Structure formats: C-alpha cells, structure tokens
Design the sequence.
C-alpha cells in the first residue's frame, strides 16, 4: 500500500471539481506534505495513546488530510468539520480518490458540531485542530461549547502563531498591518452605510479593530460609547497588531500570550501543556541541515522561542 504522502502527491488536483482556492491551497502544501503528515502523526500519538477505538473530531479540517491520516491510523470514528463549504467539498473529493474518508463530514462551527452530536447521541473522545485556534474569533464560547459536550475530552491544537518566537511575531505582524488596512476600511464603509447617525466613521472603524460587523451593530444599536468599543476591541485583540476579517471574525493568525490560553481554560479546571514544534528536516541542502540542528536544540527545555510552531495539549493529566 502506498504511503498517504505518495497517494496525495499522485492525485491530479486539476481534474477535481473543487474551488480554485482549495486547489491552490493543496498545491502549496504538497512540496512539504511529508512534514505536515509528520506533524499530524505527532498529534495523533498524543490523542490516541495506543487506543484508536475513539471518536475523533477534525475541527477546522480544511483539505481533510488530517482526517485521512487518522483513518489510516485506524481511528474508529472520525468527524470532519469546517465552516467553509468549499473546503468540505474539496476534502470529500480528495477522500474519494484516496479511497478512505472521514465517517462524517459537517459544515459549520462548534455550535453545528454540538447540535449534530446531540441529535446523533454521539460522544466525542478527542478533538484536533490543525492551525485553526489562531483564527477562532471568541475562544471562551468555543471552549464552553466543547466542554459541555465532554468535560474529559482531550484536545490538541497546533498553531504557527508562537508568541515566544520573535521572528514569527515580526513576520505575522507585517501581515496583520497589511490586512488591517483592508479590514479597517471595510469597517468604516460598513458603519457609513449601515449607521448614518455616526458622523466620525473613521474613529469608530479604528476603535472596532478585531470586532465583527455584528459586534459593531450591537454596540452602536445599544448606544455604546467609543470608549466601550475600544475596551471590547482590546479585550479581544490582546495585542495592538491582531486583527480579524469583520465579515466572519477570522483572525489573521492571532498571536496570544500562552497565559491567555491558560486563563481561558482555568475555569474548567483542565490543564494545558505547551509542546515545542519541530522543523522540516526533509528539505535538502543547507536548509535540511539547519532544520536538524534546530530540532536538536529544541530538545533542550526553555527553547520554545526557537520553535516554528507550538502544540497545545488540553486535558492531559
């Protein structure tokens, strides 16, 4: 049987009836597919602990590769969910070619997942989110919903938004500055078009950074002051650079202090452990050598500032 990496590399993605966005996203991943699958295997090692007889959720599953890796590992029941309908269609199209698939494909958010679980009387044992937690707009209600489903659920999230790595911070903040130029103007135009009673639309646009259009409507309709908007903005952003798409609340790789995650989960009395990620040693030449050296250094405690990504392990006692 071919490896999953070889199978995915051999697919003719141009022949699949998927969106251009999904196709281009997958094609950008393929050169490093072995690296991504190694990350997935590390996460599955944590989640399964030699017991594949579980129900696993691939949250924000995107292209669906993690779901396929989980099924290859023998996971009994895999539930894929993503809020993007085009991503779900792409994941199902790829699965049909590979010959294995998640057991269930859903389109929606944590509320969609909760409603489906209640309807199906399904208990989730473990949940994985690959590069998704940095995009979720409001983490408190997100974890509230998951904890209602199963207080003992083990969760693993990977994120490239490592707040301890200065190179990553600098790189992502440049992206955020560019995105905020667009998002800020979108908020200003939305306020001008939907709230003509607001004269200083620029000040409101600046004060509502990190808020959605729905948040803006709520604040203005409730006659809240500009200062109230600024307070809610900073409560969500936690950093002057963080910004989100006001149409859907998806953050631009939001960078959060590690203590922020711990603070959110404190009320549930569940532990969170942060594990250092690793570099891609499958690259040739000097880059591969440098990756091997950095991975060796990352074995030393206290080197999280060098990690290219981090793994958040939740509810591991």
Sequence:
């Amino acid at each position: 049987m071919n490896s999953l990496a070889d199978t995915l590399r051999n697919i003719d993605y141009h022949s699949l009836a998927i969106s251009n966005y999904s196709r281009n996203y997958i094609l950008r991943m393929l050169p490093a597919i072995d690296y991504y699958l190694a990350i997935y295997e590390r996460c599955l090692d944590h989640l399964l602990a030699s017991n594949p007889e579980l129900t696993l959720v691939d949250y924000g599953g995107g292209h669906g590769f993690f779901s396929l890796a989980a099924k290859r590992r023998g996971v009994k029941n895999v539930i894929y969910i993503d809020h993007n309908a085009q991503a779900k269609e792409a994941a199902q199209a790829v699965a049909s070619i590979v010959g294995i698939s998640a057991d269930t494909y859903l389109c929606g958010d944590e509320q969609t997942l909760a409603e489906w679980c209640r309807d199906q009387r399904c208990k989730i044992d473990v949940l994985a989110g690959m590069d998704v937690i940095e995009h979720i707009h409001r983490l408190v209600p997100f974890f509230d919903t998951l904890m209602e489903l199963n207080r003992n659920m083990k969760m693993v999230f990977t994120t490239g938004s490592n707040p301890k790595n200065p190179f990553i911070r600098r790189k992502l903040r440049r992206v955020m500055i560019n995105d905020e130029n667009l998002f800020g103007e979108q908020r200003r135009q939305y306020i001008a078009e939907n709230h003509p009673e607001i004269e200083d639309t620029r000040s409101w646009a600046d004060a509502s950074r990190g808020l959605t259009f729905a948040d803006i409507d709520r604040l203005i309709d409730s006659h809240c002051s500009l200062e109230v908007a600024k307070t809610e903005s900073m409560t969500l952003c936690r950093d002057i650079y963080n910004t989100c798409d006001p149409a859907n609340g998806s953050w631009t790789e939001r960078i959060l202090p590690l203590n922020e995650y711990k603070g959110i989960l404190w009320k549930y009395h569940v532990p969170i452990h942060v594990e250092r990620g690793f570099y891609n040693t499958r690259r040739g030449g000097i880059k591969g050598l440098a990756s091997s050296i950095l991975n060796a250094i990352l074995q030393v405690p206290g080197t999280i500032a060098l990690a290219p990504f981090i793994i958040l392990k939740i509810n591991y006692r």
About this structure: The first strand starts at residue 55 and ends at 59. The two ends are 37 Å apart (CA to CA). Strands lie at 55-59, 77-82, 104-107, 126-130, 154-159, 272-276, 310-314. Residues 4-163+256-314 form a domain with the Rossmann fold fold (CATH 3.40.50.150).
